[in-house]
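Good morning N.,

You mentioned wanting to compare the apo and holo forms, so I went ahead and generated the holo version with SN-glycerol-3-phosphate. This is what I fed in:
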Amino acid sequence: MKFFVDTADVAAIAELNALGMVDGVTTNPSLILKSGRDILEVTKEICGIVSGPVSAEVVSLKADEMIAEGLKLAKIAPNITVKVPLTWDGLKACKVLSDAGHMVNVTLCFSPNQALLAAKAGATFISPFVGRLDDINLDGLELIADIRTIYDNYDFKTQILAASIRTVNHVAECARIGADVMTAPPEVIRKLASHPLTDAGLAQFMKDWEKTGQKIL
Ligand code: G3P
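and this is what came out, ligand included:
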């Protein structure tokens, strides 16, 4: 499973990228707001760090305007993925932009039928939001599993990009189900390394090592 980092925080992206943990980046208008940066500038900087797909989201609601914004965003760098919302206009923009050779990420997907439409419109990625379904007592992981089955039934090439990943359990379950990609905030990716038994085991090793009175360096 590929790891995308869901942030516009350049320092966090650079740190995780240096560890080989970043196969791509996703941003959205809320993350741009959080960064306090200009969308074109920060996206360009991210594309200079990460060679994989970097999603930049359009903000218009009409297909023609989405296409114009998408074409402008795509000029930032060759690894830009234009992110469009899963609306009828968004699907129209997806079809035009993907036919023109651009990578497209269709976002805000909450049902298997929406995922089916995105695949038929030529999306490179579909972004089902796991955490936001869990927030309203629905099963976000079940949606990932349903889309996996549907795409495999018909051999759709659209990649399932599990988004709104909030917990380490979401990550493991997405990998078990077979999501192609998951995108998570840097803090969730860092948490994947933590286990209480690792901490306890390490503390014991340190205690015993001190008692040996030895040094390696
Ligand atoms: O990029 C979209 C997404 O991952 C949103 O996550 O936590 O705001 O639902 P969240």
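The beta strands are 2-6, 24-26, 54-57, 80-85, 103-109, 125-128, 159-162, 181-184.

Happy to go through it together on a call whenever suits you.

Best,
F.
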